[in-house]
């Protein structure tokens, strides 16, 4: 393994482990910016040492221990926290690697979920909450978050910096909200977990199309949240959506790592246990008897796909109607783009093309690669091959994910060969 490959692997490990390290350090240093810096310091040490010594068997534990040592060093140097250090030093027995959750007496009992609730404090705007948490929990860069929100990188960077300052100035503590406060933060928490899952489901950039570990972590947090807020249908809706989407992982990527679109997937590979769990969660949401919110509606859409034994049996008319309802409760150009695909499958490409053409003037969609990708597919179905080829080329130039770019360039060659296929957004 070359030094560059080792560095790439170390960075990937850091990306996976950073959220857990930051969440654990928050218990002691009580400052998000400091916790993030200490986690980054540990990664820098790994980048210096591991190329010489080799990557340890348990790299996450090594990074955690190193970050804790850095925290102790900081507390020793900080005279204002000297008394606190004496108390915390007894708790941080690095040699015995204690269970950090063993002494919790609250009803959440998970550091990562506690961190989400802290960064979703009402003192922050909804946009700042989501951006900061995605940065800490998912390890996303500001550019990746900007693409997820269809915003500029500078805007996201400012949100994150201001959010950290606001939390520090407001002396927001690393604690579990009471049940009344939990309800106020719930929508932001759900949004963050949802975006965390989406980044794992279709990676914004890199050489892999999916990041399963990120999806698994989001699903784990969602399941914990469903136990806490069991009377909230949207919580069950989000869990249902993530369970059903997760069921497709084995079918979404080929042996060589290439993406496989929804309509081309081998449905025999879909995990039926996850589908059953998802449908059960959806039924719990329905049983609460409240109007369907955005996550319940998206779970209903996912269940339509899950129930179809073959792609040809998909109830596209119902999916189209569900997207229409979703566009009313959660207006978004991305929702409209998905609705356009469903409309095409139900009623024909000319109807969907009208919807997509209306989105072309939306500034937030200017660099969103799926817009030209979907438009190219519609044009190809209508026999407008030259225009379709141009759209696929543009989509390929916009994506940051190498696997997705390869798929889009394949669509370009299909235009030359006159091949038509369904480019359904797998969501």
From TrEMBL:
Residues 115-167 form the RNA polymerase sigma factor 70 region 4 type domain. Residues 21-80 form the RNA polymerase sigma-70 region domain. This is RNA polymerase sigma factor. PANTHER family: BLL0085 PROTEIN, BLL6612 PROTEIN-RELATED. InterPro entries: DUF6596 (IPR046531), RNA_pol_sigma-70_dom (IPR014284), RNA_pol_sigma70_r2 (IPR007627), RNA_pol_sigma70_r4_t2 (IPR013249), RNA_pol_sigma_r2 (IPR013325), RNA_pol_sigma_r3/r4-like (IPR013324), WH-like_DNA-bd_sf (IPR036388). It comes from Alicyclobacillus fodiniaquatilis. Residues 185-285 form the DUF6596 domain. It holds the Pfam family Sigma70_r4_2.
